[in-house]
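hey all, quick one before standup. I had two proteins in the batch that finished overnight and I want to keep them in one place so we stop losing track of which output belongs to which input. First protein below, input sequence then structure tokens straight from the run.
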Amino acid sequence: MVLTSPDLLPGVDITDLTVGADRILWVATNNGIYGWRDGAVREHLDTFSGIGDNAVKQVYLDGAQRLWFVTADSVGYATTGAQVQAPGPAIPITTFELPTTPVPAMAALPELTPAISVTMTSERPPAPPDPLTGFLQEIQAFLKKLSGR
């Protein structure tokens, strides 16, 4: 089954998606985060749940199945699936506010241009010695020793 924005609520815009090990599709929207499975919304995280801002830009599931999310003013994660220890529908959420002061700009780095040096020569490198010539010379020297000359 295909999921579209009207399946969630009219006027909801989907901004990002991720899928968990439990096959729940987590959908970031301008109205919070929806957990979609088997053709229906199973979870809905919004400002009342603790995500801070309903306009969620991105969602990501890490290896521990924590659902990370990014809003305009915070980053956080929701503990999902089998990790939820509390009884009831509440999903624990942890948020971290993003700094409001601008980050100082880094100084521009100089542009680096690689330099390659090539030297051309008309001389040919010496050819490697012929192994057969050296072998024949050794045989001649051996025969001279045998003959006593």
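OK second protein, same deal, sequence then tokens:
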Amino acid sequence: MGHRRLVVGTLLLFVSAALPAQPRRTTLLEISPLSDKEMLRMIPLFGEEGRQCVISHVRDRAFVLATPAEASLLAERFRGVSVVMTDTSARTLHRRAMYGPAMKLPPVYHTYDQIVAEGERLAREYPALIVKRQIGRTTQEGRPIVAFRISSDARTSLDRPRILFTGCHHADELMGAEISLALMRQLVEGYGKDSRITEWLRHGEVFVVPVLNVDGHTVVTSGIDPRWRKNTRDGNRNGVLYEFPEGVDINRNYDFNWAHGGSDDPMSERYRGEYPFSESENRAMRALADDERFLAAITYHSQGEVIFYPWEWRGRKAPDDALLTSMARGLAGSIRTMKGDTCYKAEYGAGTVGQSYPWLYGRYGTFDFVIEVGLGASFFPPEEVPGIIAANLPGAHVALDWMNGPGLSIRVTDASSAKPLEARVWIPSVETEDVDRRTSHPATGRFWRLLPAGSYTVVVSRDGYGTVVLKDVRISTEGWTTHEVKLAGLN
């Protein structure tokens, strides 16, 4: 999502009366040390476009774009101001700031090809535990988009609760891919050795899409342009790729409240596309969600050290608000910030944005949580990467525990043939008309749903069949409450 939070989120908003209309910012400054309070003192020194001038502010070091006059003023008023380079190309200045002196991606990060190769290596060494699956191809360049299924018998689709981890909707938010890759390694290599991992993989299925925006991720990791956020759709159809800021923000292209979020301006970094699911990356996610009916999901973005979850929607909360809030707070409390003195925070996300978390929740009932990783940059200096990964893995573990419930597990079959049915499973005391009716899996007839302990009425229905009402279904504080429902066809 790339939200600018804390000081970075409010930086550089007012025009200085001391400075005239500004020429192009062609100077890259490094300011170190620079505290949050000192950063706030810089606010009056820049114009309305100043939000874009701070490329990163990680810990006490900032990279800032400035005009010559602004650079001189900053040098007078702040310590530790040094000129890194001057250039008329904004792309070059960003490359220097984000890639470092070598002007290429630090090796601590992985290219998409390297990520896929590592997944394939794990599949060769642990063929029973992990398999690769192509879920689609990219919109512009036709690259394969892959997911990895991880379980105690990954070669077989099992009737188990499923959880999804996804990285890199946005091309420049590289940490999602790195955390996803680390999680894949940890799960596969820890099976049979770590009792917690073994339990997860014996009782559930884990899906990992380490990079969804493969074309955009390649632009960033190949060193072409670290600013790239969207996919690489050739918006003006001139046959020239990577003309910043072309492309579609694939995290604004889902069909739940699509028209209310993002932008209809193709040059906006949040351009939502011409219509919902115009991008094949999003269609790949839709096909995967249709196939798997995930219990829950984690979607990685950066930055902000915050968890977003469904939702604040024009004064309304999500139907599962109490449970979602409890889960989000537990997830946030498990992830330490970069400073290490506190944990991430949980906050409501918007319901009217066309993003993955309202879409997965609103359409499928999947509890999707967005984790905004780290603070101060879209991706981070190489020395920060191992610590951010290590801090975020406990959050993934909290999410994996959700596969153990508590909640409701129903299997719906045809009363005559015993064949599984896709049926609507409705809990009237919880669900509202803001969300689609939840359904059982078409291949297995299974319905998994996380619920707080309590008593519920459950309505199971399908067109052409008689409706079954289960009364006083009691959900305990642990595990899954299971029911078999047989629907009789109507003559």
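Flagging for whoever picks this up: Residues 160 and 204 are 5 Å apart (CA to CA). The chain has a mean pLDDT of 93.
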